[in-house]
């Protein structure tokens, strides 16, 4: 029983629609970059009666989901749903699309792990590393690719460890303009971007674009999604040892029949179906605008308190803001204080712990909820 919520006066914001008898009353509102806050309606959508994945009900459900998911990815090409978190789709991307050598662009902890995954799957890699806090820029990528050794590149759209967004559209355009650039597989992690930060599969000419449920989609964790270009599908047919679970060819064959080769996470599909309706009802443009407005407000708040922003200017993420701890505050103490007010933010990631902290404004978080967070932070920082 969480009594702190009841003692926090106007700062507590109980869920009005949260009448479920099965949910505990302890609720810490998540301003962390995953899992993000999930609305009660979405939690409830998971509790529908179980169906078999070869039953017409499930085939209809997937059939209903796919066109909506395609809209969120801005694609007419193949969209896959995986019963894994996004990490699984890193493995899928490199196993299916790297035949020769992959250039892995590293500007933070997640980009570094994507690179590790390529290496651990036996792929030849070369790392393009820039300091954390910086974006990956088109010129850097093209320069390294020009040696001609590569048939793929990995890049993270929204680096969650540093709050940096890299200019994926410009990077992809620069690659495509190179001699041989049409054949390079552009493998993009937008795990914490897609659904909140603007990114488009087809118009930007990407090959694999992947995202997890528990970030800007504001769903519970456990499933992930990716769009795969026709070019990547053709490439996969030429790449040996694609493995079994993440083989694009077999996944595509099944999804064409609104199915998956193995059992999908059925309860999460119910939640996804409902959430996609709500995302599209809000409108993707409006969703992007809401995230940008929350980003701008968060940066203003942090600067107003005297914090520097860790991300390079002009590349600050729409979904997560990373403050430098130049004031030397006790970040664990701040979070302890916030918890007593029913909220939580994130300390810095890995080596940045204590040196930075992060506020997620991602998924279904609303501007007025951020104001509640800032009011609570004021109490601690005063
Ligand atoms: C969270 C995150 C991941 C890892 O995704 P999981 O769904 O936890 O496997 C990968 N990349 C980025 C940018 C992330 O934020």
From TrEMBL:
Keyword terms: Aminotransferase, Pyridoxal phosphate, Transferase
Q: Where is this region: Disordered?
A: 1-22
List every position bearing N6-(pyridoxal phosphate)lysine: 215
- Which GO annotations describe the biological process of this protein? glycine biosynthetic process, by transamination of glyoxylate
Q: Which SUPFAM superfamilies match?
A: PLP-dependent transferases
Cofactor requirements of the protein: pyridoxal 5'-phosphate
Q: Which GO terms describe its molecular function?
A: alanine-glyoxylate transaminase activity; L-serine-pyruvate transaminase activity
Which residues are substrate-binding? 358
Q: Residues in domain Aminotransferase class V? A: 99-348
Please note every region of biased composition (Polar residues): 1-11
Which domain of life, per UniProt? Bacteria
Alphabetical list of PROSITE patterns matching this protein:
AA_TRANSFER_CLASS_5
| Low complexity bias spans | 12-22
Similarity remark: Belongs to the class-V pyridoxal-phosphate-dependent aminotransferase family.
Record PANTHER family: ALANINE--GLYOXYLATE AMINOTRANSFERASE (PTHR21152:SF40), AMINOTRANSFERASE CLASS V (PTHR21152)
- Name the chain's protein: Aminotransferase
Q: Which organism is it from?
A: Candidatus Promineifilum breve
């Amino acid at each position: 029983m969480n009594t702190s919520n009841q003692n926090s006066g106007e700062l507590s914001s109980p869920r009005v629609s949260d009448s479920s008898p099965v949910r505990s009353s302890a609720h810490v509102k998540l301003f962390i970059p995953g899992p993000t806050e999930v609305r009660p309606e979405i939690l409830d959508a998971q509790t529908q009666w179980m169906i078999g994945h070869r039953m017409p009900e499930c085939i209809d459900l997937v059939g209903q989901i796919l066109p909506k998911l395609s809209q969120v990815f801005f694609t007419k090409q193949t969209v896959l749903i995986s019963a894994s978190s996004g990490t699984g789709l890193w493995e899928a991307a490199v196993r299916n699309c790297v035949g020769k050598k992959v250039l892995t662009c590293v500007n933070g902890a997640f980009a570094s792990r994507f690179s590790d995954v390529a290496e651990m799957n036996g792929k030849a890699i070369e790392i393009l590393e820039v300091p954390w806090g910086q974006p990956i820029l088109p010129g850097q990528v093209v320069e390294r690719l020009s040696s001609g050794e590569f048939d793929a590149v990995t890049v993270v759209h929204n680096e969650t460890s540093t709050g940096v967004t890299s200019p994926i559209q410009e990077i992809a355009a620069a690659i495509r303009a190179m001699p041989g650039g049409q054949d390079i597989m552009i493998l993009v992690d937008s795990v914490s971007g897609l659904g909140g930060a603007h990114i488009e599969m087809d118009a930007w000419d990407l090959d694999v674009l992947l995202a997890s449920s528990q970030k800007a989609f504001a769903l519970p964790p456990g499933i992930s999604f990716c769009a795969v270009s026709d070019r990547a599908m053709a490439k996969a047919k030429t790449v040996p040892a694609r493995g079994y679970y993440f083989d694009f060819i077999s996944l595509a064959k099944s999804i064409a029949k609104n199915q998956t080769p193995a059992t999908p996470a059925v309860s999460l599909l119910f939640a996804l179906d409902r959430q996609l309706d709500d995302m599209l009802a809000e409108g993707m443009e409006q969703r992007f605008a809401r995230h940008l407005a929350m980003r701008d407000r968060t940066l203003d708040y942090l600067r107003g308190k005297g914090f520097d922003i860790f991300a390079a200017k002009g590349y600050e993420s729409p979904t997560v803001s990373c403050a430098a701890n130049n004031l030397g505050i006790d970040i664990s103490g701040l979070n302890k204080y916030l918890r007593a007010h029913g909220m939580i933010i994130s300390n810095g990631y890995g080596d940045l712990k204590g040196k930075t902290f992060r506020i997620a404004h991602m998924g279904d978080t609303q501007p007025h909820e951020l104001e509640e967070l800032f009011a609570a932070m004021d109490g601690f920082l005063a």
